[in-house]
Amino acid sequence: MRKVRVGMIGHSFPGRVHSQAYRDLLAHSRIGIEPVMQTIVGRRENEVKLAAEELGWLSYETDWRRLIERDDIDIIDIGTPVSLHREIAVAAAEAGKHIICSSPLAGSKAEAEKIWRSARKAGVVHMVPYPLRYMPAVRYARKIVNDGLLGDIYHFRAQCCPKSNDRLGTSSKRELLEDLLAHSIDLGRNLIGEIQEAVGMKDSTECPVGSMNGTTTSPHEEKISPPNENSSCESMNTALTALVRFDNGIIGIFEVSQLGKGFHRSNLIEINGNKGSLRLDLEELNTVRLCLQDPVTGKGEFRNIDCSDYEAPGDELRKLAGKKSGYEQAFVYLMHEFMRGIHENACPSPNFEDGYKNRVLLDAIKRSAKTRTWLKIG
Question: Are 160 and 51 members of one domain?
Fold first, then answer.
């Protein structure tokens, strides 16, 4: 079996879920390629040493530049803050390493384009981990759409309300909101198609640093003084909404909010056509709610479909019948596609081109939220 040696940069959430996916892949993959968890990188030696032991890495480094220079590394897995993506990804591409880079691909359209072009010029395999594409419910929803069961599609909606995390710093919360919107945009592009124009709207919250409690303000209101005038306050985006039109004329709505209460990781998808509708919430990863209109009466009711056993065409992963897939299994599917891409020397999807297109949309939505005008995407 061919072995490919992985160098992981970062050991926070992306690093941990990717580490588990590499381990699990060995028990499921049939493509004859084996990831070796060679080295993990972190800035603080005591922390990265512990992470290497906990996650199963053979060694550790404290400088990502040394990692990229090494001859015993074939893959660079980037799980750092987005501000570091461009520098690391470009250096990895120039060193001839295959790259998987967490979302969003970059902090701007220009940086994302630089990363994509560098990887394409180097001829390396590249991928952006958008795991929602590989959730059982999403894979089955794509089949329903592609099979034409909903008829002509008129409307797409994505709503994301993550669990609040007051431990995140202000900059991390801003990154989280953009990251969640990028994942929703990628789902829309994957299920419906490319987007031609968009207009965005954002909501901001005045709150003490480190707290999600505060008062919302809109462009039409004066700022309200914080409850404690002696506390340090910042204004940060807590909700983003975008209205879009896809190339095929379909209307879409994307909503992301950090102010929802009682949610774990709600990610609602709704698609409406002239013959039926489907809904899914990724808090229930294995269930699609489908309503098909009776051609005679014109009526229909939603029914739940368990799609835990659904296997998409070309699916080569072993799966135990009747076992429910969880969030972590989506990363196993994703890593499987990445390894198959390396094995076949072909970039899987989603790749840096998708990351670039999603970044273009993110930037357009943010700009249009300031100008309150529709913007063409391109």
Answer: no
What pLDDT is stored for residue 313 in this prediction?
60
Q: In this structure, is residue 331 part of a structural domain?
A: no
How many Å is the Cα radius of gyration of the chain? 21
Q: Are 116 and 157 part of one and the same domain?
A: no
DSSP labels, 42-107: -SSHHHHHHHHHHHT-SEEES-HHHHHH-TT--EEEE-S-GGGHHHHHHHHHHTT-EEEEPSSS-S
Q: Domain range spanning residue 16?
A: 2-130+345-349
Q: Measure the CA–CA gap between 7 and 48, rounded to whole angstroms.
A: 13
| Alpha-carbon gap, residue 160 to 255, rounded angstroms | 6
Could you tell me which of 156, 105, 97 has the C-alpha nearest to residue 128?
105
Is the distance from CB of 55 to CB of 17 less than 8 angstroms? no
Tell whether 293 and 202 lie within a shared domain: yes
| Residue 145 and residue 125 share a domain | no
In a domain, 372, yes or no: no
Helix (H, G, I), strand (E, B) or coil at 329: helix
Greatest Cα-to-Cα distance within the chain, rounded to the nearest angstrom = 69
Task: Give the pLDDT of residue 8.
Answer: 97
Contact 233, 251 (CB under 8 A): no
pLDDT per position as a tens digit, 332-367: 889 999 999 999 999 999 999 999 999 999 999 999
